[in-house]
Amino acid sequence: MTNRTRTLDVVIVGAGAAGLGFGVTLRHLGIENFAILDRAAIGASFLRWPRQTRFITPSFASNQFGHLDLNAVCLETSPAYSIGVEHPTGVEYAAYLRGVAEHFELPVATGVDVLSVARRAPHNRFRLETSRGDVRARFVVWAGGEMQYPRTGGFHGADLCLHYSGVTSWNDLGGHERCIVGGAESGIDAAVALAAAGRRAVVFDRDEPWNRHGSDPSQLLSPFTRMRLNSAVDSGRVTLRGGRAVTGVRRNGNGYRLALEDGDVIDCAEKPILATGFVGSARIVRSLFDWHDEYSPLLTENDESTITRGLFLVGPQVRQGNLVFCFIYKFRQRFAVVANQIARRLRVSTEPLEWYRRHGMYLDDLSCCEDACAC
Asked: For labeling, which of 45, 111, 121, 283 is most exposed (least CB within 10 Å)?
Protein backbone atom coordinates (compact mmCIF):
# COMPACT_ATOMS: atom_id res chain seq x y z
CA MET A 1 0.00 0.00 0.00
CA THR A 2 1.13 3.52 -0.81
CA ASN A 3 -0.42 6.95 -0.44
CA ARG A 4 -1.38 7.10 -4.12
CA THR A 5 -4.76 5.77 -5.28
CA ARG A 6 -4.67 2.16 -6.48
CA THR A 7 -7.21 0.57 -8.80
CA LEU A 8 -7.86 -3.14 -8.26
CA ASP A 9 -10.32 -5.75 -9.44
CA VAL A 10 -10.99 -7.04 -5.92
CA VAL A 11 -10.30 -5.79 -2.41
CA ILE A 12 -10.66 -8.30 0.42
CA VAL A 13 -11.08 -6.67 3.83
CA GLY A 14 -9.66 -8.94 6.53
CA ALA A 15 -6.61 -11.23 6.61
CA GLY A 16 -8.04 -13.99 8.75
CA ALA A 17 -9.39 -17.41 7.88
CA ALA A 18 -12.06 -16.08 5.52
CA GLY A 19 -9.97 -13.42 3.80
CA LEU A 20 -6.96 -15.63 3.15
CA GLY A 21 -9.07 -18.62 2.13
CA PHE A 22 -10.93 -16.50 -0.37
CA GLY A 23 -7.67 -15.00 -1.60
CA VAL A 24 -6.37 -18.49 -2.40
CA THR A 25 -9.57 -19.14 -4.38
CA LEU A 26 -8.86 -16.05 -6.50
CA ARG A 27 -5.30 -17.31 -7.01
CA HIS A 28 -6.64 -20.63 -8.31
CA LEU A 29 -8.81 -18.72 -10.79
CA GLY A 30 -5.80 -16.81 -12.06
CA ILE A 31 -7.08 -13.47 -10.76
CA GLU A 32 -4.04 -11.39 -9.83
CA ASN A 33 -5.19 -7.79 -9.45
CA PHE A 34 -6.42 -7.94 -5.88
CA ALA A 35 -5.30 -7.04 -2.35
CA ILE A 36 -6.08 -8.28 1.15
CA LEU A 37 -6.16 -5.48 3.73
CA ASP A 38 -6.05 -5.85 7.50
CA ARG A 39 -5.79 -3.21 10.20
CA ALA A 40 -3.65 -5.45 12.39
CA ALA A 41 -1.90 -8.71 11.49
CA ILE A 42 -2.62 -11.95 9.68
CA GLY A 43 -4.93 -13.96 11.92
CA ALA A 44 -5.42 -11.04 14.32
CA SER A 45 -8.70 -12.39 15.72
CA PHE A 46 -7.03 -15.69 16.64
CA LEU A 47 -4.11 -13.88 18.24
CA ARG A 48 -6.62 -12.22 20.57
CA TRP A 49 -7.99 -15.51 21.90
CA PRO A 50 -7.29 -16.31 25.57
CA ARG A 51 -4.16 -18.46 25.72
CA GLN A 52 -6.10 -21.52 26.92
CA THR A 53 -8.73 -21.38 24.15
CA ARG A 54 -8.52 -24.07 21.49
CA PHE A 55 -10.38 -24.94 18.32
CA ILE A 56 -13.50 -26.96 19.05
CA THR A 57 -13.22 -28.66 15.64
CA PRO A 58 -10.40 -31.23 15.32
CA SER A 59 -7.65 -31.11 12.71
CA PHE A 60 -6.56 -34.26 10.90
CA ALA A 61 -4.06 -34.59 8.07
CA SER A 62 -6.56 -36.49 5.92
CA ASN A 63 -6.12 -34.75 2.54
CA GLN A 64 -4.36 -37.84 1.21
CA PHE A 65 -7.65 -39.73 1.57
CA GLY A 66 -9.78 -37.04 -0.07
CA HIS A 67 -11.07 -35.43 3.14
CA LEU A 68 -9.99 -31.85 3.70
CA ASP A 69 -8.85 -30.96 7.23
CA LEU A 70 -11.86 -29.40 9.00
CA ASN A 71 -9.83 -26.33 9.97
CA ALA A 72 -8.14 -25.77 6.61
CA VAL A 73 -9.10 -22.58 4.80
CA CYS A 74 -8.16 -23.85 1.35
CA LEU A 75 -7.32 -26.92 -0.69
CA GLU A 76 -3.87 -28.52 -0.44
CA THR A 77 -3.29 -27.40 3.17
CA SER A 78 -3.83 -28.88 6.62
CA PRO A 79 -3.21 -27.25 10.01
CA ALA A 80 -2.74 -30.74 11.47
CA TYR A 81 0.13 -31.33 9.06
CA SER A 82 1.75 -27.90 9.34
CA ILE A 83 1.47 -27.32 13.10
CA GLY A 84 0.93 -30.89 14.35
CA VAL A 85 -1.92 -30.13 16.76
CA GLU A 86 -5.42 -31.58 16.78
CA HIS A 87 -7.11 -28.66 18.57
CA PRO A 88 -4.94 -25.61 17.83
CA THR A 89 -4.67 -22.54 20.02
CA GLY A 90 -5.25 -19.14 18.45
CA VAL A 91 -1.51 -18.46 18.26
CA GLU A 92 -0.89 -21.81 16.57
CA TYR A 93 -3.64 -21.27 14.05
CA ALA A 94 -2.40 -17.78 13.20
CA ALA A 95 0.94 -19.42 12.37
CA TYR A 96 -0.86 -21.75 9.94
CA LEU A 97 -2.55 -18.73 8.31
CA ARG A 98 0.79 -16.97 7.90
CA GLY A 99 2.06 -20.12 6.19
CA VAL A 100 -0.90 -20.05 3.79
CA ALA A 101 -0.26 -16.40 2.94
CA GLU A 102 3.41 -17.09 2.30
CA HIS A 103 2.97 -20.30 0.30
CA PHE A 104 0.35 -18.83 -2.05
CA GLU A 105 2.12 -15.45 -2.18
CA LEU A 106 -1.06 -13.63 -1.25
CA PRO A 107 -0.98 -9.82 -1.61
CA VAL A 108 -1.60 -9.04 2.06
CA ALA A 109 -1.13 -5.52 3.42
CA THR A 110 -1.29 -5.29 7.22
CA GLY A 111 -1.50 -2.14 9.32
CA VAL A 112 -4.09 -0.78 6.88
CA ASP A 113 -7.30 0.40 8.52
CA VAL A 114 -10.30 0.61 6.18
CA LEU A 115 -12.08 3.77 7.30
CA SER A 116 -14.98 3.86 4.83
CA VAL A 117 -16.37 2.09 1.77
CA ALA A 118 -18.57 3.78 -0.83
CA ARG A 119 -19.77 2.94 -4.32
CA ARG A 120 -19.08 5.79 -6.74
CA ALA A 121 -20.49 6.82 -10.12
CA PRO A 122 -19.97 7.01 -13.07
CA HIS A 123 -18.15 3.65 -13.28
CA ASN A 124 -19.82 2.15 -10.21
CA ARG A 125 -16.50 1.27 -8.63
CA PHE A 126 -15.90 1.16 -4.92
CA ARG A 127 -13.77 3.73 -3.20
CA LEU A 128 -12.16 2.59 0.01
CA GLU A 129 -10.68 5.23 2.27
CA THR A 130 -7.86 3.66 4.25
CA SER A 131 -5.26 4.84 6.72
CA ARG A 132 -2.70 4.54 3.94
CA GLY A 133 -4.49 6.14 1.03
CA ASP A 134 -7.54 5.54 -1.13
CA VAL A 135 -8.18 2.35 -3.09
CA ARG A 136 -10.63 1.83 -5.94
CA ALA A 137 -12.01 -1.58 -6.76
CA ARG A 138 -14.69 -3.20 -8.87
CA PHE A 139 -15.54 -5.69 -6.12
CA VAL A 140 -15.24 -5.65 -2.34
CA VAL A 141 -15.28 -8.88 -0.34
CA TRP A 142 -15.88 -8.24 3.35
CA ALA A 143 -14.02 -10.82 5.44
CA GLY A 144 -13.49 -9.02 8.74
CA GLY A 145 -13.14 -10.98 11.98
CA GLU A 146 -15.36 -10.95 15.05
CA MET A 147 -13.11 -10.97 18.11
CA GLN A 148 -12.60 -7.19 17.96
CA TYR A 149 -16.35 -6.53 18.10
CA PRO A 150 -17.76 -7.99 21.33
CA ARG A 151 -21.47 -7.90 22.09
CA THR A 152 -21.44 -5.96 25.35
CA GLY A 153 -25.04 -4.74 25.78
CA GLY A 154 -28.23 -6.54 26.60
CA PHE A 155 -28.90 -5.53 30.19
CA HIS A 156 -28.25 -2.72 32.65
CA GLY A 157 -24.76 -2.84 34.10
CA ALA A 158 -23.27 -5.01 31.35
CA ASP A 159 -20.46 -2.46 31.14
CA LEU A 160 -19.37 -3.50 34.64
CA CYS A 161 -18.54 -6.99 33.38
CA LEU A 162 -15.38 -8.28 31.74
CA HIS A 163 -16.13 -9.56 28.24
CA TYR A 164 -14.64 -12.89 27.18
CA SER A 165 -12.66 -11.10 24.46
CA GLY A 166 -10.88 -8.99 27.07
CA VAL A 167 -9.19 -11.96 28.75
CA THR A 168 -5.60 -12.75 27.82
CA SER A 169 -5.23 -15.74 30.13
CA TRP A 170 -7.72 -17.33 32.50
CA ASN A 171 -4.82 -18.28 34.75
CA ASP A 172 -4.09 -14.60 35.38
CA LEU A 173 -7.55 -13.71 36.72
CA GLY A 174 -7.66 -13.27 40.47
CA GLY A 175 -10.25 -14.52 42.92
CA HIS A 176 -11.67 -17.92 43.76
CA GLU A 177 -14.99 -17.80 41.87
CA ARG A 178 -16.43 -16.07 38.81
CA CYS A 179 -20.01 -15.64 37.63
CA ILE A 180 -20.36 -16.10 33.86
CA VAL A 181 -23.25 -14.60 31.88
CA GLY A 182 -23.88 -16.84 28.88
CA GLY A 183 -23.63 -20.60 28.53
CA ALA A 184 -22.80 -21.11 24.85
CA GLU A 185 -19.34 -21.99 23.55
CA SER A 186 -17.43 -19.00 24.93
CA GLY A 187 -19.14 -19.14 28.33
CA ILE A 188 -18.45 -22.83 28.78
CA ASP A 189 -14.90 -22.40 27.50
CA ALA A 190 -14.38 -19.76 30.19
CA ALA A 191 -15.86 -21.99 32.91
CA VAL A 192 -13.74 -24.97 31.91
CA ALA A 193 -10.57 -22.89 31.77
CA LEU A 194 -11.26 -21.39 35.22
CA ALA A 195 -11.87 -24.87 36.63
CA ALA A 196 -8.58 -26.06 35.15
CA ALA A 197 -6.88 -23.11 36.88
CA GLY A 198 -8.27 -24.27 40.24
CA ARG A 199 -11.13 -21.75 40.47
CA ARG A 200 -14.89 -22.08 40.58
CA ALA A 201 -17.34 -20.82 37.98
CA VAL A 202 -21.13 -20.36 38.01
CA VAL A 203 -22.71 -20.12 34.54
CA PHE A 204 -26.06 -18.38 33.98
CA ASP A 205 -28.15 -18.89 30.83
CA ARG A 206 -31.94 -18.97 30.54
CA ASP A 207 -31.85 -21.18 27.42
CA GLU A 208 -29.55 -23.83 28.91
CA PRO A 209 -27.41 -24.52 25.80
CA TRP A 210 -25.79 -27.43 27.66
CA ASN A 211 -29.15 -29.28 27.48
CA ARG A 212 -29.95 -28.48 23.85
CA HIS A 213 -30.19 -31.30 21.30
CA GLY A 214 -30.28 -31.29 17.51
CA SER A 215 -28.22 -31.87 14.38
CA ASP A 216 -27.01 -28.33 13.61
CA PRO A 217 -23.59 -27.79 15.23
CA SER A 218 -24.12 -24.02 15.03
CA GLN A 219 -26.83 -24.31 17.67
CA LEU A 220 -25.17 -26.81 20.02
CA LEU A 221 -22.16 -27.19 22.25
CA SER A 222 -19.46 -29.07 20.38
CA PRO A 223 -18.56 -32.58 21.57
CA PHE A 224 -15.11 -31.23 22.51
CA THR A 225 -16.70 -28.57 24.74
CA ARG A 226 -19.32 -30.90 26.19
CA MET A 227 -16.68 -33.46 27.14
CA ARG A 228 -14.64 -30.83 28.98
CA LEU A 229 -17.76 -29.40 30.63
CA ASN A 230 -18.84 -32.78 31.98
CA SER A 231 -15.44 -33.25 33.61
CA ALA A 232 -15.50 -29.74 35.09
CA VAL A 233 -19.02 -30.23 36.51
CA ASP A 234 -18.02 -33.60 37.97
CA SER A 235 -15.07 -31.91 39.68
CA GLY A 236 -17.48 -29.62 41.53
CA ARG A 237 -15.79 -26.50 40.21
CA VAL A 238 -18.47 -25.57 37.64
CA THR A 239 -22.14 -24.97 38.44
CA LEU A 240 -24.76 -24.52 35.70
CA ARG A 241 -27.78 -22.33 36.47
CA GLY A 242 -30.34 -22.32 33.67
CA GLY A 243 -33.94 -21.21 33.24
CA ARG A 244 -33.34 -17.62 34.38
CA ALA A 245 -31.64 -14.75 32.60
CA VAL A 246 -29.40 -12.14 34.17
CA THR A 247 -31.25 -8.82 33.90
CA GLY A 248 -28.77 -6.50 35.56
CA VAL A 249 -25.43 -6.09 37.30
CA ARG A 250 -24.46 -3.45 39.86
CA ARG A 251 -21.66 -2.82 42.28
CA ASN A 252 -22.16 -4.17 45.79
CA GLY A 253 -19.44 -2.81 48.03
CA ASN A 254 -16.20 -4.31 46.76
CA GLY A 255 -18.10 -6.94 44.77
CA TYR A 256 -20.97 -7.25 42.32
CA ARG A 257 -24.63 -8.20 42.51
CA LEU A 258 -26.43 -9.98 39.66
CA ALA A 259 -30.19 -9.55 39.32
CA LEU A 260 -32.11 -12.48 37.80
CA GLU A 261 -35.42 -12.19 35.97
CA ASP A 262 -37.34 -13.97 38.73
CA GLY A 263 -36.26 -11.33 41.23
CA ASP A 264 -33.52 -13.39 42.82
CA VAL A 265 -30.07 -11.83 43.33
CA ILE A 266 -26.62 -13.40 43.33
CA ASP A 267 -23.56 -11.82 44.92
CA CYS A 268 -20.18 -12.21 43.21
CA ALA A 269 -16.92 -11.13 44.76
CA GLU A 270 -15.16 -10.72 41.40
CA LYS A 271 -16.07 -8.95 38.16
CA PRO A 272 -18.55 -11.13 36.22
CA ILE A 273 -17.55 -12.55 32.84
CA LEU A 274 -19.70 -11.54 29.88
CA ALA A 275 -19.86 -14.42 27.37
CA THR A 276 -22.51 -13.02 25.05
CA GLY A 277 -20.74 -13.37 21.72
CA PHE A 278 -19.78 -10.90 19.04
CA VAL A 279 -21.60 -8.52 16.68
CA GLY A 280 -19.27 -9.00 13.69
CA SER A 281 -17.31 -6.51 11.65
CA ALA A 282 -19.87 -6.01 8.87
CA ARG A 283 -21.43 -3.32 11.02
CA ILE A 284 -18.59 -1.04 9.86
CA VAL A 285 -20.27 -0.96 6.44
CA ARG A 286 -23.77 -1.32 7.83
CA SER A 287 -25.37 1.11 5.36
CA LEU A 288 -24.21 -1.00 2.41
CA PHE A 289 -26.25 -4.00 3.56
CA ASP A 290 -29.88 -4.52 4.37
CA TRP A 291 -30.23 -6.47 7.61
CA HIS A 292 -32.25 -9.47 8.70
CA ASP A 293 -31.73 -8.47 12.33
CA GLU A 294 -29.21 -6.48 14.34
CA TYR A 295 -26.41 -8.94 13.65
CA SER A 296 -27.14 -10.63 10.29
CA PRO A 297 -26.81 -8.88 6.90
CA LEU A 298 -29.29 -9.88 4.22
CA LEU A 299 -27.58 -11.60 1.29
CA THR A 300 -28.50 -12.87 -2.15
CA GLU A 301 -28.13 -16.56 -2.92
CA ASN A 302 -24.54 -15.70 -3.95
CA ASP A 303 -23.67 -13.99 -0.61
CA GLU A 304 -23.83 -10.54 -2.21
CA SER A 305 -25.41 -7.52 -0.55
CA THR A 306 -29.04 -7.17 -1.58
CA ILE A 307 -28.66 -3.38 -1.96
CA THR A 308 -25.02 -2.87 -3.04
CA ARG A 309 -24.01 -4.78 -6.15
CA GLY A 310 -20.42 -5.98 -6.08
CA LEU A 311 -20.16 -6.16 -2.28
CA PHE A 312 -19.87 -9.73 -0.98
CA LEU A 313 -19.63 -11.24 2.50
CA VAL A 314 -17.50 -14.25 3.45
CA GLY A 315 -16.85 -15.69 6.89
CA PRO A 316 -18.80 -16.46 10.06
CA GLN A 317 -21.49 -13.79 9.57
CA VAL A 318 -22.83 -15.45 6.43
CA ARG A 319 -26.46 -16.54 6.77
CA GLN A 320 -28.71 -18.13 4.17
CA GLY A 321 -32.22 -18.42 5.56
CA ASN A 322 -31.93 -20.54 8.69
CA LEU A 323 -28.47 -21.80 7.79
CA VAL A 324 -25.57 -20.36 9.77
CA PHE A 325 -22.03 -20.64 8.33
CA CYS A 326 -20.19 -19.78 11.52
CA PHE A 327 -17.45 -22.44 11.44
CA ILE A 328 -14.48 -22.54 9.09
CA TYR A 329 -15.47 -25.87 7.58
CA LYS A 330 -18.89 -24.36 6.78
CA PHE A 331 -18.08 -20.88 5.49
CA ARG A 332 -15.15 -22.05 3.34
CA GLN A 333 -17.73 -23.93 1.23
CA ARG A 334 -19.10 -20.57 0.10
CA PHE A 335 -15.81 -19.09 -1.19
CA ALA A 336 -16.31 -20.68 -4.61
CA VAL A 337 -19.89 -19.37 -4.81
CA VAL A 338 -18.65 -15.80 -4.43
CA ALA A 339 -15.59 -16.38 -6.60
CA ASN A 340 -17.80 -17.77 -9.36
CA GLN A 341 -19.75 -14.51 -9.50
CA ILE A 342 -16.64 -12.33 -9.55
CA ALA A 343 -14.90 -14.48 -12.17
CA ARG A 344 -17.91 -14.40 -14.49
CA ARG A 345 -18.21 -10.62 -14.26
CA LEU A 346 -14.46 -10.28 -14.91
CA ARG A 347 -14.88 -12.76 -17.80
CA VAL A 348 -12.42 -15.19 -16.26
CA SER A 349 -12.80 -18.96 -16.72
CA THR A 350 -14.53 -20.63 -13.77
CA GLU A 351 -13.30 -24.12 -14.71
CA PRO A 352 -10.89 -24.33 -11.71
CA LEU A 353 -13.90 -24.18 -9.38
CA GLU A 354 -14.91 -27.68 -10.46
CA TRP A 355 -11.89 -28.80 -8.44
CA TYR A 356 -13.53 -27.13 -5.45
CA ARG A 357 -16.81 -28.90 -6.12
CA ARG A 358 -15.12 -32.31 -6.27
CA HIS A 359 -13.61 -31.70 -2.80
CA GLY A 360 -16.78 -30.43 -1.10
CA MET A 361 -15.69 -26.80 -1.27
CA TYR A 362 -18.50 -25.49 -3.49
CA LEU A 363 -21.80 -25.48 -1.64
CA ASP A 364 -24.46 -23.94 -3.87
CA ASP A 365 -27.23 -26.48 -3.26
CA LEU A 366 -28.43 -25.67 0.23
CA SER A 367 -31.21 -28.25 0.19
CA CYS A 368 -28.66 -30.83 1.33
CA CYS A 369 -28.19 -28.92 4.59
CA GLU A 370 -31.68 -29.60 5.92
CA ASP A 371 -31.26 -33.27 6.85
CA ALA A 372 -31.30 -34.25 10.50
CA CYS A 373 -29.20 -37.09 11.83
CA ALA A 374 -30.96 -40.39 12.51
CA CYS A 375 -28.92 -41.08 15.64
From this structure: 121
